[in-house]
């Protein structure tokens, strides 16, 4: 029996992780710690409501974190402020949750000698030129562009330092862009799906030429399980499907798949400091741990995600009104 503490388990990736963990490992005792910020939603855990312990609380609350970590064998740390545009507008919660929150987790796992897996992002590496074969590797120097990326980079460096200097049993993973069900409609793909379902036009930043590598959330979570089970302590693993696409290609694909002309979108002002391209070399996790994405490209995973948003408007409708109000303030 494994007692697993999942921070940020009411968010997009965390909730998918909790559901898939219980489906594949029903013997696990899962505790979710989540502050239920604007991004968290308990309804994302409805199907496992009776199978988990849910604690409504803050990762910066050191006393609470200490107790929950003591009661666990392994901690998977997803909790974060996750949206780049929000961080550019108001960085404070990113510094607090992503940096101080990770410090709070580190203190507790060190004190109680628990296993930690820290979830991070490829954005810590900055960006790559649009037209180059280059990809990030685990050795690429950190060069974050946004307050979000800088706060995640800080958290990664803390975890690495605690692993090296205090022998904390930690691993890290830096994943490319995720898509899947239960993703907040502030994010690119669900924002465009929800727009089309609301008879509005998708919005592309700048000329829509920036490139992202799209990885299905279930493939990300399979990778996390492999690392928790068999990853080398102190190591970092990059995770990415290899499917790179410009934002314009993604919107065109979406529009066509939803029965609309491929050019039925609008261009809106660009994001400041907008990273051009992300691409991960995930050779290490593929070779060492045998990870393979079930959804090797977006065309394989996207239709079911569109269907999910079509069938679950109750989940995103109200949140969309709030996030679109925030976007109006930003002019995007
Ligand atoms: P999300 O914004 O959907 O969810 C974040 C969750 O953390 C929410 O449930 C929120 O309530 C909770 N939270 C925020 N502040 C908290 C606090 N102080 N205490 C406790 N809980 C708090 O984010 P996501 O997209 O699911 O991302 C999860 C993790 O994965 C983050 O660490 C992010 O950096 C990383 N990541 C995300 C992506 C992506 O494409 N979404 C890719 C790579 C890595
Ligand atoms: O790479 C991993 C990261 O991916 C994660 O660490 C972040 O938590 C996650 O939010 C995501 O960051 P991005 O900034 O890449 O994702 P976002 O969904 O905000 O935007 C994806 C791309 O689409 C980016 O180039 C900006 C663009 N965009 C976004 C929105 C919301 C648009 O063109 N139009 C939009 O309306």
Topology summary:
Blueprint: E1 3-7, H1 12-24, E2 29-34, E3 52-56, H2 62-70, E4 74-77, H3 84-89, H4 92-112, E5 115-121, H5 147-166, E6 170-175, E7 178-179, H6 188-197, E8 203-205, E9 211-213, E10 215-216, H7 217-230, E11 236-239, E12 244-246, H8 247-257, E13 266-268, H9 283-289, H10 298-311, H11 313-330
Parallel strand pairs: 1-2, 1-4, 2-3, 4-5, 5-6, 6-11, 7-10, 8-13
Antiparallel strand pairs: 9-12
Helix pairs in contact: 1-7, 2-4, 4-5, 6-8, 8-10
The structure holds nicotinamide-adenine-dinucleotide and 2'deoxy-thymidine-5'-diphospho-alpha-D-glucose.
Give a quick summary of the entry.
The protein is 43% helix and 16% strand. It has eleven helices and 13 strands. The N and C termini lie far apart (48 Å).
Describe this structure in words.
This protein is α/β, with parallel strands linked by helices. It folds into two domains: 2-179 and 214-239, NAD(P)-binding Rossmann-like Domain (Rossmann fold, 3-Layer(aba) Sandwich), CATH 3.40.50; 188-211 and 245-277 and 298-325, UDP-galactose 4-epimerase, domain 1 (Alpha-Beta Complex). Helix content is 43%, strand content 16%. A seven-stranded parallel beta sheet has the order 3-2-1-4-5-6-11, with helices on both faces. Strands 7-10 form a two-stranded parallel ribbon. Helix 1 links the parallel strand 1 and strand 2. The chain is globular.
